[in-house]
Amino acid sequence: MKNNNSSLNYLDEPLSGNRTRRQRDAILGAAANLVTREAFADIGFADLLLRLSFDRLAANGLASPHELASFYRSPDMLLNALFDTMLVHLDARISRVAANDPESLGRFERAYRIVISGRANLEPLIVSGLDGALVSRLFFLFMSVMDHESRHGTSFTLQQRWMGWYNRQIARYDEEEGVGAVAAAATVA
Fold first, then answer.
1. Are 127 and 141 in contact (CB under 8 A)?
2. Residue 127 backbone dihedrals phi, psi, to 5 degrees
3. Which of 30, 110, 141, 151 has the fewest CB atoms found within 10 Å of its own CB?
């Protein structure tokens, strides 16, 4: 599944040499577990980077710091790949819920609320080696980080990427629902 959620798509980094998708997914899974293992109230992006050092990941026995760096040049890049994974997973779950909604108008908003609230009764979904429960923890972690960054005014990169993804979803569903055509016709009339 191609991720069109961000112009900085860290999941589409080319894999070469001995690097495999399975290894990359294992690293993403270990990183997600590492950053969501501890409580994450009022945590900033810089705090996450400290948690996600290659040395801490290597201590889990997954790979050496050098091997980790061959996939992701920095912990920042790995954290952004986790964010992309979360967006791909959310998109897939929202699409699955929306597909079962008989009413087209407002379909995205209803599906989004169902997925975010945890009320989506879907078969397990694995994206980039991460299951739904782990991605849910990532979602709440990143929401907490964005809230922290907003209140402290330190960085808005994740917020900008989140809003870009969200706005693209709204536009996509509006186009599918024909809302754009109705709005355009209303402005002409």
1. no
2. -125, 125
3. 151
